[in-house]
Design goal:
By secondary structure, the chain is an alpha/beta fold. The protein is 42% helix and 25% strand. It has 5 helices and 5 strands; from the N terminus they run E-E-E-H-E-H-E-H-H-H. Strands 3-2-1-4-5 form a 5-stranded mixed β-sheet, sandwiched between helices.
Length: 138
C-alpha cells in the first residue's frame, strides 16, 4: 500500500511517495501553488496515478498545540483534497520538517550549492517517513 505525503506551502507543494510496502519514503515532485482547488485536483490525480491508499498532509502547530496559520491553511487544503478523492486524507504533525530535511542533507554531505533553493519535496519525505515509522506494525 503506497502512501502519499504532502508538504503544503504558500508557493509550492512538496510531495513524497512511499514504496509499496509503506516502509521507505522518497521524493516524488514539487507542484507550484495555483489555487486550493486546482492544487487539490493535481494531488488527487497524482495519488490515483500512483495507486495510493492514503494521503498524509503535514500540519504545523504553535507552542500551545494549536494549528498555526500555515497549519490552518494545510487543514483547509486537506478538506479540499478530501472533496476531490475517495482516498482517505489524514493530517500529520509536520513540525520542523523543513529544518530536519535541511539538516539531513547537510549531514549527507550535499554541497551548499545543491542545497540552495527549496526543500519542499524533502520536507514531504520527512513528514512521510515520520508517519510510516509511527504507524509501522510490530
Amino acid at each position: 500500500m503506497r502512501i502519499l505525503a504532502v508538504d503544503h506551502g504558500e508557493k509550492r507543494i512538496g510531495l513524497a511517495l512511499s514504496d509499496p510496502t509503506a516502509t521507505i519514503a522518497s521524493p516524488l515532485k514539487v507542484i507550484t501553488h495555483v489555487s486550493r482547488l486546482v492544487d487539490a485536483a493535481q494531488v488527487a490525480d497524482l495519488a490515483a496515478q500512483n495507486d495510493v491508499s492514503r494521503i498524509v498532509v503535514g500540519q504545523s502547530y504553535d507552542e500551545d498545540g494549536q494549528p498555526n496559520p500555515a497549519g490552518r491553511r494545510a487543514g483547509r487544503f486537506a478538506e479540499a483534497l478530501q472533496g476531490q478523492t475517495d482516498i482517505p486524507v489524514e493530517l500529520w504533525d509536520e513540525s520542523h520538517s523543513t529544518q530536519i530535511a535541511r539538516a539531513a542533507r547537510i549531514e549527507l554531505g550535499v554541497s551548499r550549492k545543491k542545497r540552495a533553493g527549496h526543500q519542499d519535496e524533502f520536507a514531504a519525505v520527512v513528514i512521510l517517513q515520520s508517519y510510516l515509522e509511527a504507524n509501522r506494525k510490530p
